[in-house]
Amino acid sequence: MDYKIVKKANQKERYWAGGISKELYIFPDGSTINDPFNFRVSTATINPGEYKFSDFKGYKRLAVLLSGNVKLDIDGRDYFLEPYSHIFFSGDSHVNTSCDVECIDFNLIYKDNIELLDFQIIDYQFYGEPLSNKAINIYYNIDKVKHLTVNKNEYILEPGDTLIACGNNFHIEGDGKGILLSLGIN
User: Fold this and answer.
1) Do you find a cis peptide bond into 130, omega within 30 degrees of 0?
2) pLDDT tens, 104-145?
3) How far is CA 80 from the centre of its chain?
4) For residue 106, with 0-12 CB atoms within 10 Å meaning exposed, 13-18 middle and 19 or more buried, which class applies?
């Protein structure tokens, strides 16, 4: 795979106890959340109430809150997230969440042997040059339409669309926020 764009309308939905999870990408291609996988990127709604996060033993996790306010109880310690705040935690942790209004978060679940080379919440023009060309780079568009050039081909990213690119030959223009991940695969 050189690159692909996953449109919001084509994301796989999966129900969990607290709402709906939308899979943006799972690696290797063709894996499922029930199979061993190297990493998975998703968004999820968290309905008002209290819920337990799924266990992912042997993995690390990153959660970025996109909307709302949420309390996470991770192994008995409370953390409060507001929009665009984030937290890293172990997939072995016992995590309970509670919120008063519907929230949305962005999630990365990755094996211990996967290296997270870069993680940024960006709101400016971005060129792929600083990223590793030996990594899988993921850009999730949070808001506003973005113009995207990958290998001299032009595309439009709507809010909720995701770019997955191997290597660094891409350029994103436009205002608004997005999340960038760069994952080293051995």
Assistant:
1) no
2) 999 999 998 899 999 999 887 776 666 777 789 999 999 888
3) 19
4) buried
The reported pTM is 0.92
SS3 annotation, the chain = CCEEEECHHHCEEEEECCEEEEEEEEECCCCCCCCCCCEEEEEEEECCEEEECCCCCCEEEEEEEEECCEEEEECCEEEEECCCCEEEEECCCCEEEEECCCEEEEEEEEECCCEEEEEEEECCCEECCCCCCCEEEEEEECCCCEEEEECCEEEEECCCCEEEEECCCEEEECCCCEEEEEEECC
Q: How many other C-beta atoms can be found within 10 angstroms of the C-beta atom of residue 2?
A: 10
Q: How far is CA 129 from the centre of its chain?
A: 21
pLDDT confidence of residue 130 = 64
Tell me which amino acid residue 179 is. I
Tokens of 4: 């692909």
Alpha-carbon dihedral 118, 122, 124, 126, rounded to 10 degrees: 30
Residue whose C-alpha is closest to residue 68's, from 87, 50, 46: 46
Which two tokens mark 37? 């996988």
Q: Among 30, 19, 22, 21, which residue's Cα sits nearest to residue 6?
A: 22
